[in-house]
Amino acid sequence: MPGERNAGMDYDSLIVAALSARSRQPSVQDEFVTVTHVHHSERSSTAIAFIRPGGGLRPHYHREHDEIIVFLAGEATFRIGDEIREVRANDVVSVPAGVVHATLCARTPCILAATFAPRFDLINEDRVYVDT
User: Fold this and answer.
1) Residues of the chain with pLDDT under 50
2) Residue 15's pLDDT is what?
3) Helix (H) and strand (E) counts for the chain?
């Protein structure tokens, strides 16, 4: 949930990973959003997303993947389930499989790290888009 903080989390490492992701080939890119997958293990995957002001992601859910999103920079409007809330740097949102979610609109440039479990298959993506 936004506002949840984990004192043991190393935000500096996440920001370094986010900045280094800019030099990698993005897996998704449009005029407002760039997503780069930066890590895969046997049980999880992590992606870094850059969202430009005014941009966002289409509401969607994952059938089989839980997702933990750490907002590293910026401010945005976020949807989880039927709730719309404001998020900002250092907020953490935990999204269980099957729950609709999206960063709807960035008010400032946003950087977020999203970790999926189990491992995310980029060829057979587990993402189902829904109408707003």
Assistant:
1) 1-9
2) 67
3) 1, 11
| pTM summary value | 0.81
E strand or H helix that includes residue 52: none
| Among 101, 91, 103, CA closest to 62 | 101
Pull the structure tokens for residue 66. 């839980």
**CA nearest 114: which of 83, 85, 87?**
87
Q: Are the beta carbons of 111 and 18 closer than 8 angstroms?
A: yes
The helix/strand/coil state of 59 is: coil
The DSSP string of 76-117 is: EEEEETTEEEEEETT-EEEE-TT--EEEEEESS-EEEEEEEE
Task: Please report the pLDDT score of residue 10 as a whole number.
Answer: 60
Gyration radius (Cα) of the chain, Å: 13
